[in-house]
Amino acid sequence: MMQAVLHGSMATQPQGVPTPSQPVLDGSQNAVSAASANPPGTVVIVFGPGQEGIVQVVAEVLGKPWTTVTSLSTLVGGSDAVVVGILAEDLKSSLGGCDRSSLVLVNTHCIDDGSFPDENLTDSCHYEFLYSRSPFFRRDLTRFLSLILGQTRPHEQLATKKRTNFISTTFPDVRAALSNLDILSVGADAVELRVDLLEEPLPDGTSSSVPSLKYVGQQVMLLRQRTELPIIFTTRCIKENGRFPMDDPYLFYKYLRRAIQWGIEYIDVELWLPEEIRRRLAEIKGNSIIMSAFHDFSGTWKWTSPEAHRLFKEGAKYADIVKMIAMVNTIEENYELEYFRSTIKAKYSYPLLSAVNMGQMGQLSRVLNTVFSPITHPLLPIIAAPGQLTAAEINEALHIMGQLPKRDIYAIGSFRPTPQSMFMEKCFNELSLPHNFRTLDRGPKGSIEAVIMQPNFGGAYVNPPLSSSAPYIPTMSAAARAIGLIDTITVDSSDGQHKFVGENAAWKGIRATLTQDYVPSAYRGRAAIILSSSESDASAAIFALRSLDVEPIYTVGFKASGPLAPGLEPFTSIQSVKLVEQPFVIVSALPPEKSLLVQPLLRHYRSNGRSSPPSTRGKVYLDLTSGPRKGDPLAVAASAGWTAYGIEDVNAWTTVETIRLLVGQNVPFDFVRMASGRGLY
Fold first, then answer.
1. Are 220 and 193 in contact (CB under 8 A)?
2. Are the CB atoms for 251 and 245 separated by under 8 Å?
3. Which of 247, 285, 286, 438 has a CA 20 to 30 Å removed from the CA of 262?
4. For 455-483, what is each residue's pLDDT tens digit?
5. Does position 158 have pLDDT exceeding 90, yes or no?
């Protein structure tokens, strides 16, 4: 019975959505990493009565035209990359005999009336998106679509970090955590939703022993609306310090499968579950990442036993990360774990191993583990596992052990103590980083070189940025070299040398801003106009647009001559404007005194108000102007039908990236943006 349910409970994985192969133990990478990021031909949005508006919003996020049909049989599979809407009732009557190989079916459901999708309808679709109308979080939809279509792969970025942590929300209702979520997740790279700890209130005043899918779905929606961090979906069993009963393994499959359909980034799959369930979850995981989880609370389990290697291999069959956790009684068992970790690293480059010991004696292993260390926070109601440490405690221990030496981190430019520098110091204090943060006015030629040559120099961000031709920074990222500007200087000591690396964080801040409300592929092949008084002021924006495959790019106010110049087309007269039917993006990098110059363009290319196809409409206006502007271009853009972003969003995302580059720590965008609302920029 279970096998029949497992094989028939979910629609076949559609073409265009990567179907990853099983992880291998010979050091090769998982196939999902190399899968195409191109979206499938047709995305079918299933909606309920009165909810047809979601089809247009999905189309706008994807940058595609849209239509509605009453039967899937009318679609020509994959011939046109469009968004198609269909009523749930019409879908039910048209599924029989329909070729869905080139379709991605997404069931969308508004929960405002307290209802929940029909389970049979959900099972007929590949994915499901739950949302509320008031308020509607478009960025939640963008994140969901970006993941399920392979447009963004957060794990690929996290896998390159030297150290990753995740915070576990142990609240019975995540709404209790939302007000503090920004501060809770400072230093975390992901947020774990402990589904088994959720307590769904019942009419009689008690709570359900197992929260319903309806309740869990609402909790997922609320959590994802309030954090940009990836989510880890965990259903921990009773035997492993959780609350889910173990008498019905299919219960776990039911919830974990639904998490995949909800577009959750990480799925925690306990190793004790039958292999058939673990295999099936790996087959249908799409772009979610599977974490195999093993916990032993007996205190007698040993890392030196053959069983440890056997369990790793078993977990690696169907997982991208193997998580192994054991209760220990002596400090020596941490050394045994480190030997086990070293043997695994020497033999396998994939999957990743996350391994820690529980209890007070095991805290050393939590400091030494570098892959998704579970952390806690004083504001959490309970600690998810014995011996968990905060991010600050881990950093303090690393410093004592000599793994996190004290360095001087600088802000170099026209600086005095500012809200931004005080914010950086606050982050260092919150994370218990040992570094000194110093502000330094840029002096005469050679002054920066004198600073970075100091033995305790640990990095700097520079405003205004340096030319990438600075001779004392011979190594730089490809982005910094192409853009021609260095705004962040890091120190690479990985090979024992003290090498300075020039980075550019600004372009990532621009790209992150542009992809808040549109998936990356929405920009592909679309026209952009950039206004600037100089090439250097526009270069980071040009690089960000090129990373999104924007073309052609028209320039106003400057002529490019650097590495980014090929392919740029300058506007030379008013006649040039008439040649561009409709740009998808307009970027202004003008100085404040010239900010009025962009307003005629915004009005000329104003949205024509048509709802379909959206590809003919003006879309995104990005204002990179700092300081008091003449007029209000953002208001003009919004009134003309553009999605408008200001320099504040770009600066916040750039700060997130800068902190990652300088100290390897994650500070969430929402936390930075909240601080910027109090005068950070």
1. yes
2. yes
3. 247
4. 899 999 998 899 988 888 989 999 999 99
5. yes
DSSP-derived 3-state class of residue 113: coil
3-class DSSP state of 272: coil
Do 513 and 622 form a contact (C-beta atoms < 8 A)? yes
Of 674, 611, 253, 251, which is closest to residue 423 (Cα–Cα)?
Answer: 674
Distance (Å, whole) CA 301 – CA 283: 31
Single out the residue of 118, 99, 98 nearest to residue 108, CA to CA: 118
The size of the chain, in residues, is 681
Beta bridge partners of 556: 531
With beta carbons less than 8 A apart as the criterion, state whether 622 and 482 touch. Answer: no
Burial 205-231 (b: 16+ CB within 10 A, else e): eeeeebbebebbbbbbbbbbbbbbbbb
Q: Assess contact for 227 and 220: CB atoms under 8 A.
A: no
- Model confidence over 82-129: pLDDT tens digits? 899 999 999 988 887 677 778 999 999 999 999 999 999 999 999 999
Angstrom distance (rounded) from CA 21 to CA 32: 7
Q: CB of 590 within 8 A of CB of 532?
A: yes
146 neighbors 152 (Cβ within 8 angstroms): yes
Tokens of 110: 């508004």
8 Å CB contact between 323 and 357: no
Q: What's the DSSP call for residue 379? A: T
Strand partners of residue 131: 110
Residues 310, 316, 321, 324, Cα dihedral to 10°: -20
User: What's the sign of the alpha-carbon dihedral 254, 255, 258, 263?
Assistant: negative
Read off the tokens for 267.
Answer: 């799925």
The pLDDT score that the predictor gives to residue 679 is 47
End-to-end CA distance of the chain: 60
Q: Which helix (H) or strand (E) holds 481?
A: helix 478-483
Cβ neighbours for 445, distance < 8 A, ≥ 6 positions apart: none
Cα 279 vs. chain centroid, distance in angstroms?
Answer: 26
Of the CA atoms within 13 Å of residue 44, those in its CB half-sphere come to 29
> CA distances (Å), 208 to each of 211, 235, 628, in order?
6, 15, 55
Tokens of 447: 């002054």
- For 484-509, write each residue's pLDDT tens digit: 999 999 998 777 777 899 999 999 99
